[in-house]
Amino acid sequence: MNKTKLQQLSELLNAPVSLKTMTGAEWESEGGRKHPETGDATQTEKTCLMVVRVNGAELQCLSISATLTPLERQLLGWAVQQGGVKPTAGAGSDLERQARRLGEWIQQSVTAGEWRAELPDRMELRNRMFDGMVPFLLLCEQVEDKEPAYVELEKTVRTFLTDDTLLIPLREHEWLILSSDRVLTEADADNDEVLGHEETKEIISTLAEGLHQLLTGEWGGECHVAVGEPIVPAESVVRIVGTLRETIFLGRKFHLGMQIHLPWLVHLERLLSGIPEQVRSRFVEEMMGRPDLFTDSETVSTLDAFFSMDCNVSETAKKLYIHRNTLLYRLDKIKHEAGLDVRSFNDAVLVRILLLLYKVTKRK
């Protein structure tokens, strides 16, 4: 809201009007309700506060030095809501408004740490959600610092997934995508009537890779996609956003270059991330027989492939396109230089932890 509009509003109400930025906690302390939305108002003894914009944990409010009647607050709130909606061509404008409203609520709940919050009945999109939706979290950092228009991105995503897919804007360059779980059976090449747990995760991973390729091909820039197993959005949409955000964070922290992030592949990373930095660094220094062992790119790529193939020598050799004996030679070299045999379970666990910690500490 610019100065001209503030001045016009001040003249209309015959009272000083200004813009004020508040936190959610400050808003509640003034008598405002939890999870405020655009147009919400609270009246103190001498001032009326009205939300004109919600940006995560921050609120931009009108501060009106007057006591407004309930009808005046209602009319002004309606005007603020209408002014805050960005018009979009076509029939998708209402859907975009509803999606942005839901995204604001999710962001507020995540910021407040209310991961178990259930979707309020007042959210219009609640009626379009059902049990069993596959959640994708999309984070695109565009080269030109631009993001595609909502209607364009929604059309692209629905073309790849299902027609009833919901696109929910969260933070800048970040979207939550909820798609019907029938996309799993449609993507199942074996046409199984009932998908097993591992089959489901495999198909979900493939869908995430396809979505990533589609979006980077369409808009470019650095794009990250995290995906989870089917959820009941009304009960766990806040929790899944928090989980998928953490999954992307861990993937970018421990695995440079990784752009597809799966929660079930970062359990160890989640545990190690909670260890204080000083403790991590000291552990690496004490346990590394050769401090420069992981500076060799061939050693690191060999170990990464070996662990990704569940320590299977034959499958690792195929993945690296080398002879089995060449791989055995490399593993024996690691054993000789580090004193750790990755073909032994205990040593493999230790090397895996050391490698993950080293990838983080070397960038400090």
UniProtKB/TrEMBL annotation:
Protein name: PucR family transcriptional regulator
Pfam families xref list: HTH_30
Organism: Cohnella suwonensis
Gene3D superfamilies in the record: PucR C-terminal helix-turn-helix domain
Domain PucR C-terminal helix-turn-helix, first and last residues per copy: 300-356
Superkingdom in the source lineage: Bacteria
Region (Disordered): 23-42
SUPFAM superfamilies documented for this protein: Homeodomain-like
